[in-house]
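Give me C-alpha cells for this 221-residue protein.
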Amino acid sequence: HTSITMSSAPKRKRFVGLKNSGATCYLNSLLQTMYITPELRRGLFKLKGRELGVQSFDDSEEEGGVSRSKARVIPIELQELFATLQSERKASSVPTKDLTKSFGWSGSDLRQQHDLSELNTILMEALDLSLKKTSGENLIRDTYQLRQTSQIHCKSCGYNSSPVDSKHRSLLVMVKGNKNLEESIGKTLATEILDGYRCTACNQKVKADRKHWLTELPPIL
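Here you go.
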C-alpha cells in the first residue's frame, strides 16, 4: 500500500455517487461532504501504509504483510473510497460496504437510520483515534475543531462568571425560518435569559444572561 496524492488520480469531469446499502443515504451525504473537503482528503491521501499499520492488503500475517485486524482500518477504507470517487470513470456510483464493515456494522445497522449529527461526532472521534501517533494525528482538529465560550452575567449585582470553553467539531444551526447562514449562527449564539439562577457572588436567585461566542474557528466550519 502506498500513499495517494492528489495528482495520482486523473482530474474528473463528473462526480460519482455512493450506493445506498439499505438506509445509508444519511451516511452517504456525510461521506460526500468529507470527500469534497480538500484539507481532509489531501491529509488522508498523505498518510502512508506503514504508519497506518499495513504494508499490503493481504489478510495473511506472512512476512512483509500485516493483518488488516491490526491496521487502522477506518482511515485506510476512507483513503480507498475517496480515491475511487476521484478516479472512477465508468460507474455512476460506488459501494461503501468496505467502509461500513470497518465500522463493525452488520445488516441490521445498514437498515437503521441514525442521527446525522451524532454519526458525524462518532466518525470524527473514531477517525481521530485511528490517526494517533501518525503524521495525520492533528488532521481532524486542524480541519474542523472550533472553540465556543460562554459566560453568565448576573443582572442583580453585575457579577460575571469565569468564561467556560468547550471544543466542538461542528456547529448545529437551525435552517428553517432563517434567511441565511449568518442569521442561523446568530440565533445559535443568541444570549439566553436565565430566571432563578443562583449567583455565586450575591448568593441569591436572580435573573441572569448567558452569552455565547466563538473564540476559535477552523478552516472548515
